[in-house]
Automatic annotation (TrEMBL), chain A:
One function term, GO molecular function aspect: pyruvate dehydrogenase (acetyl-transferring) activity
EC number: 1.2.4.1
Enzyme class: oxidoreductase
Annotated GO biological process: glucose metabolic process; pyruvate decarboxylation to acetyl-CoA
Phylogenetic classification of the source organism: Eukaryota, Metazoa, Chordata, Craniata, Vertebrata
Cofactor(s) demanded: Mg(2+); thiamine diphosphate
Physiological role: The pyruvate dehydrogenase complex catalyzes the overall conversion of pyruvate to acetyl-CoA and CO(2), and thereby links the glycolytic pathway to the tricarboxylic cycle.
Keyword terms: Carbohydrate metabolism, Glucose metabolism, Magnesium, Metal-binding, Mitochondrion, Oxidoreductase, Phosphoprotein, Pyruvate, Thiamine pyrophosphate, Transit peptide
Gene3D superfamilies membership: 3.40.50.970
Major subcellular location class: mitochondrion
Protein name in the entry: Pyruvate dehydrogenase E1 component subunit alpha
Enzymatic reactions: N(6)-[(R)-lipoyl]-L-lysyl-[protein] + pyruvate + H(+) = N(6)-[(R)-S(8)-acetyldihydrolipoyl]-L-lysyl-[protein] + CO2
Gene Ontology CC terms: mitochondrial matrix
From TrEMBL, chain B:
Gene behind this protein: LOC113079625
GO CC field: mitochondrion; pyruvate dehydrogenase complex
Assembly, per entry: Heterotetramer of two PDHA1 and two PDHB subunits. The heterotetramer interacts with DLAT, and is part of the multimeric pyruvate dehydrogenase complex that contains multiple copies of pyruvate dehydrogenase (E1), dihydrolipoamide acetyltransferase (DLAT, E2) and lipoamide dehydrogenase (DLD, E3). These subunits are bound to an inner core composed of about 48 DLAT and 12 PDHX molecules. Interacts with DLAT.
TM region positions: none
Name this protein carries in UniProt: Pyruvate dehydrogenase E1 component subunit beta
This enzyme's EC code(s): 1.2.4.1
Reactions mediated catalytically: N(6)-[(R)-lipoyl]-L-lysyl-[protein] + pyruvate + H(+) = N(6)-[(R)-S(8)-acetyldihydrolipoyl]-L-lysyl-[protein] + CO2
SMART domains reported in the protein's UniProt record: Transket_pyr
């Protein structure tokens, strides 16, 4: 079936055996944490107020979030060195969203997001190597260097979309396919606070609700649509209510456990045939909108610093695990070292791998098509294109 | 079917058939006799373009579970132009979906469904409404296979009436062949006859890539003879191949969609003056069959493109540019010329509308001017 055979099998992000100096017997295997209450809209009740975290899960979430963090910071470096070009929208600060959502759905579920997509490409099975090589436009990139930052795909992950809001009806279409084919799968459709004012999103809310499509609409509200704060863009900033007839919940997006529990709750709602549901994740991005935006002309450095010191998602998880004796400081440091090494290796690959061969310039115009000629820059140049 | 046509309908059908025979230059009388004979044998058949389109969809819906239709009024209303009549009754809600009036939304949903492995056929009540959806057709569908380095194909068909229709005025009469023909990653098809419509739509639905299928309201009701071969459920016309509708030695007329009818009529008029036109029905706008055009120009040494769309940056402009850049230029005895719609929004009044689109007299005039007769 088209689209089913081309993707490589995805990797499970962050799952690695950590050999520690201390034995398992010394650590708490699991603990229960209080999580913030979610505001609800057209729902009788929200997700549970407590979440159970196992040591294993905690280590996996920590490693994954740390990998995303370090990967984005490395991308920042490479961009400043002009090795990454064009658009680069970084995700640092929002890690709990990608990791929490992935923890709340199945690998066989589907997900689509906008252009701030590196974190999701990773949680949906891409490797750091192929993500970074795509950013640097090399042949080892996840899209062979043809797509760049905003156009990365894996199995059941539909990108990476450059046009604000377009990914929402696309995601509802994926959900329609899930329902049509009778698979018990859902689609997570992500969009930002900026996109939330797009007309096509409201058209999608209507059809998804009418046809009871199994989709979870998730608004990642990081308070700013490029340089425009939410109060200056939206007549109503209660994004979780904007689906009107669609039930919604507002979630603390800096707490990976909160995000996970809310996602599980939403997935349950979808899969029970009740139709779509909307989640607003309150989160924050440390970088500007993109690498061309220093991010301080429309917000204060103090604000950024405050979020970093009080609500950083990785620190939140780390503190929880340490204070409950679920992990040691050394163990986390060990993970940090491993992550750093993985990122360094990937960056090394991404800067040394050659660019895509010029002979492949015109490939992949059509799928399942006999080879064809493509007009080159002047009429004497005929280029070859294969599927 | 045809045996159940009432006498008036049968006469109309006969006249239309006669006209189509005259156009194709065959000897009329034996053809009519043959046709009566054929009717009893049920070999060749008279089918309207509308019914041919429906047959194509019906057969493909039956053949592949993943194919489904969506658009405004396609189900219960049986299609704004009755193209999908009977399909909802046969296939039900799951496969024939009425959408709200939300072009950009339902186009996006269709493209997403295609990404996830289904094979949607999206109907636009008019391609003029597709302008709302053009972002999804181009940015979400056409470019995706390339941007993903070959990971994500999009198998989808966008179809509906395109171009002029009588009396519909400016906002409902634009031809989008040039707009969509501009985009790499799209295939753009513009059928003329019933056979074109059926064979090309089946190919489009079976194609694993985004195809824009430009029908025309004027052609919906026109009956054509459909050969026995074309009645088979596996009858396909390859996308990207033009058809010579009428052979001739003096001038090549290249056209697409409803304007092909005008060219055939003009050719019949010119034949009385001893001028034999070769009429090429493009069938596909992208990829365009330049080989067929060049082969014809080699023979006739004269080229006129005829289209209903606007002149600037149009289909004719592309053909002429390629002729200039290719072997065809060397064969021309006169500069190639475009006959197009007038460069204005489509007016409403009948007299004005008639003078905005190429008519038989305009084509005859252009041919005679080019041949200096």
């Amino acid at each position: 079936m088209a689209g089913e055979t081309s993707f490589p099998e995805p990797q499970l992000a962050g799952a690695r055996l950590v050999v520690s100096a201390r034995t398992y017997a010394d650590f708490t295997p699991q603990a229960s944490f209080d999580i913030k209450n979610c505001d609800v809209h057209k729902l009788e009740e929200g997700p549970p107020l407590q979440a159970v975290l196992t040591r294993e899960e905690g280590l996996q979430y920590y490693r994954t979030m740390q990998t995303i963090r370090r990967m984005e910071l490395k991308a920042d470096q490479l961009y400043k060195q002009k090795i990454i070009r064009g658009f680069c929208h970084l995700y640092d600060g929002q890690e709990a969203c990608a990791v929490g959502i992935e923890a709340g759905i199945k690998r066989s579920d589907h997900l689509i997001t906008a252009y701030r997509a590196h974190g999701y490409t990773y949680t949906r099975g891409g490797t750091v190597r192929e993500i970074m090589a795509e950013l640097t436009g090399r042949r080892g990139g996840i899209a062979k260097g043809k797509g760049g930052s905003m156009h990365m795909y894996t199995k059941h992950f539909y990108g990476g979309n450059g046009i604000v809001g377009a990914q929402v009806p696309l995601g509802a279409g994926v959900a329609l396919a899930c329902k049509y084919l009778g698979k018990n799968e859902l689609c997570v459709c992500l969009y930002g606070d900026g996109a939330a004012n797009q007309g096509q999103i409201f058209e999608t809310y209507n059809m998804a609700s009418l046809w009871k499509l199994p989709c979870i609409f998730i608004c990642e509200n990081n308070q700013y649509g490029m340089g425009t704060s939410v109060e200056r863009a939206a007549a109503s900033t209660d994004y979780y209510k904007r689906g009107d007839f669609i039930p919604g919940l507002r979630v603390d997006g800096m707490d990976v456990l909160c995000v996970r529990e809310a996602t599980k709750f939403a997935a349950e709602h979808c899969k029970s045939g009740k139709g779509p549901i909307l989640m607003e994740l309150l989160t924050y991005r440390y970088h500007g909108h993109s690498m061309s935006d220093p991010g301080v002309s429309y917000r204060t450095r103090e604000e950024i610093q405050e979020v970093r010191s009080k609500s950083d998602p990785i620190t939140l998880l780390k503190d929880r695990m340490l204070s409950n004796n679920m992990v040691s400081v050394e163990e986390l440091k060990e993970i940090d070292v491993e992550v750093r090494k993985e990122i360094e290796d990937a960056a090394q690959f991404a800067t040394t791998d050659p660019e895509p061969p010029l002979e492949e310039l015109c490939n992949h115009i059509f799928y399942n098509e006999p080879p064809m000629k493509v007009r080159g820059i002047s009429p004497w140049i005929k280029l070859k294109s294969v599927s | 079917m045809h045996n159940s046509l009432d006498p008036r309908q049968r006469t109309q059908s006969n006249m239309a058939y006669l006209r189509s025979i005259l156009r194709s230059g065959k000897n009329a009388v034996p053809a009519v006799l043959r046709r009566e004979f054929h009717r009893t044998l049920q070999a060749a058949m008279q089918v309207t373009v509308r019914d041919a389109i429906k047959e194509a969809m019906d057969e493909e819906l039956e053949r592949d579970e993943r194919v489904f239709l969506l658009g405004e009024e396609v189900a219960l209303f049986e299609g704004a132009y009755k193209v999908t009549r009977g399909l909802w009754k046969k296939y039900g809600d799951k496969r024939i979906i009425d959408t709200p009036i939300a072009e950009i939304g339902f186009t996006g949903i269709a493209v997403g469904a295609a990404m996830a492995g289904l094979r949607p056929v999206v109907e636009y009540m008019s391609f003029n409404f597709s302008m709302q959806s053009v972002d999804h057709i181009i940015n979400s569908a056409a470019k995706t296979y390339y941007m993903s380095g070959g990971l994500q194909p999009v198998s989808i068909v966008f179809r509906g009436p395109n171009g002029a229709a009588p009396g519909v005025a400016a906002q409902h009469a634009q031809c989008f062949a040039a707009w969509y023909g501009h985009v790499p990653g799209l295939k753009v098809v513009s059928p003329w006859s019933a056979e074109d419509a059926k064979g090309l739509l089946k190919s489009a639905i079976r194609d694993d890539n985004p195809v824009v299928f430009l029908e025309n309201e004027i052609m919906y009701g026109v009956p054509f003879e459909m050969s026995e071969e074309s009645q088979s459920k596996d009858f396909l016309i390859p996308i990207g191949k033009a058809k010579i509708e009428r052979k001739g030695n003096h001038v090549t007329l290249v056209s697409h969609s409803h304007v092909v009818s005008r060219c055939m009529d003009a050719a019949a008029v010119l034949a009385k003056d001893g001028i034999e036109c070769e009429v090429i029905n493009l069938r596909t706008i992208r990829p365009m069959d330049m080989e067929a055009i060049e082969t014809s120009v080699l023979k006739t040494k004269h080229l006129i493109t005829v289209e209903g769309g606007w002149p600037q940056f149009g289909v004719g402009g592309e053909i002429l540019a390629r002729i200039m850049e290719g072997p065809g230029f060397g064969y021309l005895n006169a500069p190639a010329v475009r006959v197009t719609g007038v460069d204005i929004p489509m007016p409403y009044a009948k007299l004005l509308e008639e003078n905005t689109l190429p008519q038989i007299k305009d084509i005859v005039f252009s041919v005679k001017k080019m041949l200096n007769v």
